[in-house]
Amino acid sequence: MKNKTKSKLITGVFLFFIFGIGILYIFMPKNEFSETEKRYLAEFPEFSIKSLVSGDFASEFEEFLADQTPFRNAFVSINSYFQLLKGNNGSNGVYLGSDGWLIEKPFERENRFNVNMDRILKFAGECGIPCAITAVPSKGYIYADKLPKNSLEYRDGTYLQMLRECSQYLTVIDLFAPMTAAKNDKQLFYKTDHHWTSDGAYIGYREICKALNLEATPESGFTPEITDGFFGTSYSTSLYTLTKPDSVKIMRSKKTGGKAEVIINDGKEEIYDNMFFTDALQAGDKYVAFLNGNHPLVKIKTGNEGGNLLMIKDSFAHCLAPFLAENYANIIMVDLRYYKKPVSALISENNISQVLFVYGIDNLTESADIILR
Predict the structure, then answer these.
(1) d(Cα 231, Cα 278) in Å, to the nearest integer?
(2) Which pLDDT score, from 0 to 100, does residue 125 have?
(3) Collapsing DSSP states into helix, strand and coil, what is residue 170?
């Protein structure tokens, strides 16, 4: 009798769960954008006989169900911690490290480092302008002491040595040693995001100035502004929801306050008067406060003395550029993920005096978008 009651109870809970979720699917409002994951969610697919026969409708409908699952974030978070209990550390490619550090697993996909460096070296040899490159080390390499046991190996040191071998063709700026030396004094990366902090970027700025014979503005020449409550991409990917948020520190030049003419080109030009977009500090993705996030082409007219810098970069450059604005009259930033015109034309059009490649080591290793013309 007890077994029958138990079976009925389990069946009832199962049916309640299935039908309850189904009802919620129907009546709960559908979200267009996930603030947590920082991406647009799948919408209900448009039905047609062609899409049904081809299988596109079923595939898109499956994506819709996955994205619009009621309490989706809660289920993903519970699964992340459940996997931890089973001994599997690494939710969606992110380790839960000690002291609240969320650290991306090392790159494991197709290695394009040699291909990308060949393209960069070819461009450096042909452009007729002094070129330099700096690779931002991965968080897992710098903060290896925060990694869980049995984590995969980070090969940043190998790539740094390969970069050094290119020094006869362009200036190679080593950030690995100075960041390793400073990691216990300041937080150089966000715990919940893959980017470096302003403190990490300042080390990058200082080393770039040293390599390019520029005079770096001392830290005392900047005014820090701190905003709490930042959950970055490492958090949104893993959904280890018990993790505490980061703080975002903007460092404004005491000389300019961050003011500059910022021209953002996403197919049409929009002009702003500051390098810091502080409205983003009240939103979910606070890193967008640095130069308004990812764009194909950004031009910064600083009003300062100096030459004209072309930065070919990924998003690590966004909080670095306001520092470099201290030393250049103009900075042109190109993101090859979105910019598909000849980069070489920008050199003559903008009277460029220095080219600087700024990439996170993972992007330098995996990106298929580093195509230079």
Answers:
(1) 16
(2) 94
(3) coil
Which structural domain range is residue 198 located in? 94-366
In this prediction, residue 90 carries a pLDDT of 77
Helix segments in the chain, DSSP class H: 2-27, 49-54, 56-67, 72-85, 113-127, 139-142, 156-164, 176-182, 198-211, 233-238, 321-324, 344-349, 361-366
Q: Which residues contact 22 (CB under 8 A, 6 or more apart)?
A: none
Instruction: Report the percent of the chain where pLDDT is more than 70.
Output: 77
Q: In the 8-state DSSP scheme, what is residue 277?
A: -
CB neighbour list of residue 277: distance below 8 Å, 6 or more residues apart: 288, 289, 290, 291, 292
C-alpha distance from residue 180 to each of 19, 96, 137, 174, 185 (Å) = 54, 21, 10, 11, 10
Regarding whether 299 and 178 lie in a shared domain, the answer is yes
Query: What's 166's DSSP letter?
Result: T
3 state DSSP class of 265? strand
Q: Are residues 169 and 117 in the same domain?
A: yes
Q: What is the pTM of this model?
A: 0.83
Count of all residues that appear for the chain in the document: 373
Read off the tokens for 273.
Answer: 């008067």
Q: Which amino acid is at 213?
A: N
Specify the 3-state DSSP secondary structure of 48.
Answer: coil
If asked whether residues 277 and 140 sit together in one domain, one would say: yes
Pick from 233, 168, 180, 173: nearest CA to 204: 173
**Residue 286 and residue 246 share a domain:** yes
The pLDDT of residue 288 is 96
